[in-house]
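ok trying again, last paste got cut off:
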Amino acid sequence: MLPLIAAAIVGLGSNWCHLRKPKRCGPIVSPGGHQLSVLSPEAHPPPNLLYVSRTTAVNVSRALVCVPAKSGSTSFYFWLYQSLAGQPWPYSGAPWIQDVGSDRWANLTGVRVSRFAAMPYRQRAKALADSETHRFALTRDPLERAESSYYSKIACGTGDAADHGGAIRQLMAQAPKAASLGPGPGSNLTDTTPCLSATDWGQLVLEARLDPKTRYQLNPHFMPQADACGLHTIGYHMLIPLEDNAYGMRAIAESLGVTATAPRLAKRHVVSTRDKRALSAQAVGLLARVYLQDINLLQFPERSSWASSRRNGSASADVIVKAIRAVKQASKGAGKTRGGGGKAKGFTSAFTPGAVKARGHVTTVGGGGVVGAGVQLLPGKAKGAGHGKGKGPGVVSHLAGGEHLAGGHSTARGRA
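nice, full thing came through this time. structure:
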């Protein structure tokens, strides 16, 4: 086992890793324990998950790395290419560095970089079952990431102007009810570079996110990290927050056997604070609803350094904290959910069909596991029927086989 990853697991055992904010580790899952949900016919393979393999005369190194847009992704791709190719990215123009399916990546000797979702079923199953293929996910404060996406792709008078039109048209097609209300104050759809107010954008993204038909078709910059990385179905050995990524990047480099110095990932596409207007309380509230699952799973502090300093032009820290707490409270409606041969009592979540909250956060994916094969990543109490059984204290991971790993005040009973 790699020393850095071993240290992370030891840290989890000593009850600190999952309690850190933001989280620096994911649920430690036995190989193959989550395949039923992430590989079932109705599942959506995480679109931002990369399979990286490097073959040398000595050995083969492999890793699964999830790289959500607006989470240091561009910096990561440039580092990955240089580490694997032995030289900086030498190209300009399309296909861009993020297009790992292009010949620019395919021509590298002894290297394979593929999108997990594009891999054949058997290869995906093998990658998840391989205990030597360690899994990493880059993460970022959910609301900071949302604000960054907004000012880059949607806001008036700033960002990547060439992307605005396509991003807005796609979003309006995915959210016809919100789009039918027409643009509100601060939006302009008739200008050469169309743009939307943060409130209008939040309403469109919320509708598209809640619709199962469009949830996984969202623009990658707007897609919650829980969906982009499959945080509710895949157990990651390590979560790497952009705000403190040096340790995690060293672990990825070691996992791939590369000698290139692992960088500290940075935000490459930064919009000047002068071009940002403070988000309204209504807009922050909408975004907290869209990204509630990320907020619960990743456990970034409500009063983060980003929110407190307002360095990115957001609403005040008090407004952000109030919005997050209000949305969390509103999502705690009593209810009961049945799924795939199991049932659980808890608090109904309006953000994922078939989801329950048991003083924590459970997401059901279907496929006949625990509460429909779901995952609980916050401390809580729950009972459900699955295909296995387990018990432990701390943070619970309930992944498609009814497996309890990483611990929590919860018990699963199943059909073994």
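cool. The radius of gyration is 21 Å. Confidence is low (pLDDT under 50) at residues 3-15, 28-33, 334-416.
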